Amino acid sequence: MKPLIPLFFLCSISPGFAAITVFTTTGHPAVNSDADTRTVFLDAPDRQQNAMFGQLSSEPTAAAQDARSGLQRMSADQQQQLVEAWRGVIAAWKLGIEKYPAVVFDDVDVVYGTTDVDLAKNIRAQGGHP
Fold it and tell me: Residue 38: which residues within 8 A CB-CB, separation 6 or more?
């Protein structure tokens, strides 16, 4: 599904996340995280857009009409949820996240391949070697 929120608006938003951020998908939730750990589900925009709009028509005119209609029906809460979901994806892009899952420390150090925060801390402490 094509993104419905103008990306130029969202790209100007700074991530401002916690010192530890886990970038993942709903199928692989964060492990050993605490209240200070931010979890970003990279599949959230697609899930939310599919829930709000369903499958759009493959015919461009009908799809555009369906999308306009869906946007008009969106509540302020739904709009905010979609903005937040895209904000997380854009933060991953701005940080240069190359794959997921990834645990990011202080928007600088990245440990790929795990959602386990404790394991990622250990790998980071050992200079990137498990």
Answer: 17, 18, 20, 21, 22
Contacts with 112 (C-beta within 8 Å, 6 or more apart), sequence order: 98, 99, 100, 101, 102
Which residue type, as a one-letter code, is found at position 7? L
> pTM (2 decimals)?
0.76
- What pairs with residue 37 in β-bridges? 20
Q: Are 88 and 38 in contact (CB under 8 A)?
A: no
pLDDT in tens, 14-26: 445 559 999 999 9
Tell me how far apart the alpha carbons of residues 62 and 49 are, in angstroms, rounded to a whole number: 17
Contact criterion met (CB below 8 Å) for 104 and 95: yes
Helix (H) or strand (E) holding 49: helix 44-53
Contact of 22 with 92, CB cutoff 8 Å: no
